[in-house]
Specification:
The protein is an alpha/beta fold and 245 residues long. The protein has a single domain, classed as Nucleoside phosphorylase domain (Rossmann fold), CATH 3.40.50.1580. Helices cover 27% and strands 24% of the residues. Strands 1, 2, 3, 4, 5, 6, 7, 8, 9, 10 and 11 form an 11-stranded mixed beta sheet that branches. Strand 3 and strand 4 form a beta hairpin. Helix 2 packs across helix 5.
Length: 245
């Protein structure tokens, strides 16, 4: 049975219904991960859980030690990764509370440690990243969303920005021209690092606000937190169905 790791994003710093067996403090060559790796049972399956931003939420997107997080999960025995990400909606279909299982991404980040291979002085390693998300794992997320009858999109392009600030209207307009459907701050380099470690990886994105310029008002944290309160329970139900299936 595949051991899945769940990486919880904003609003998912702990997994309700998770039966804890062990909390693992794992040292990595890249420093400390965002939090301890929690090993336990969820939906009747062995699962690893990691809070991407720490618990409580304290680490900004550009300061997350993505390399340590993925390395620690691999060392703990993870064989596949389900990532939960809170995002903004760019495409008209991506309203607050909508789920998206992205099939592509565009990386707008800079200055983040983004590879495990930079210290290899003998070989230059080029990892194929044509399709950044694992298709079988994506299909399982899609099937779970359909079974739960939640509003979702089975495809989408995730644009990953640097953060921690939200984007300008002009930046979102540019991203829309580039083909982005949703915008977030944590999709990269997480997806690439999973690929380098040969960990199948898929993203369950929850839209928590319209992106800049996509609504008549300004974006508020109250709006985002309300969408998280409503949507995270649904995200847990999707994850449970994926694991139990």
């Amino acid at each position: 049975m595949t051991v899945h790791a769940i990486i919880g994003g904003t609003g998912l710093t702990e997994l309700s219904g998770f039966v804890l067996h062990e909390a693992q403090h794992i040292d990595t060559p890249y420093g400390a991960p965002s939090a301890v790796i929690l090993r336990g049972e969820y939906a009747g399956r062995e699962v690893l859980f990691l809070a991407r931003h720490g618990h409580p939420h304290r680490i900004a997107p550009h300061q997350v030690n993505y390399r340590a997080n993925l390395w620690a999960l691999k060392q703990a025995g993870a064989e596949a990764v389900l990532a939960v990400n809170a995002v903004g909606g760019i495409h008209a279909a991506m309203g607050s509370g909508h789920f998206c299982v992205p099939h592509q991404l565009i990386d707008y980040t800079y200055g983040r440690a983004h590879t495990f291979f930079e210290d290899d002085l003998e070989h230059v390693t080029h990892v194929d990243f044509s399709y950044p998300y694992d298709e079988p794992l994506r299909e399982r997320l899609i099937g779970a969303l359909a079974a739960e009858r939640f509003a979702f999109s089975s495809h989408g392009v995730y644009g990953c920005t640097q953060g921690p600030r939200l984007e300008t209207v002009a930046e979102i307009a540019r991203m829309e021209r580039d083909g982005c459907d949703i915008v977030g701050m944590t999709g990269m380099p997480e997806a690439l690092l999973a690929r380098e470690l040969e960990l199948p990886y898929a993203c369950l994105a929850l839209v928590v606000n319209p992106a800049a310029g996509k609504s008549s008002g300004v974006i508020t944290m109250d709006e985002i937190e309300a969408a998280l309160r409503e949507g995270i329970g649904k995200a847990r139900a999707v994850l449970a169905r994926v694991l139990a299936g």
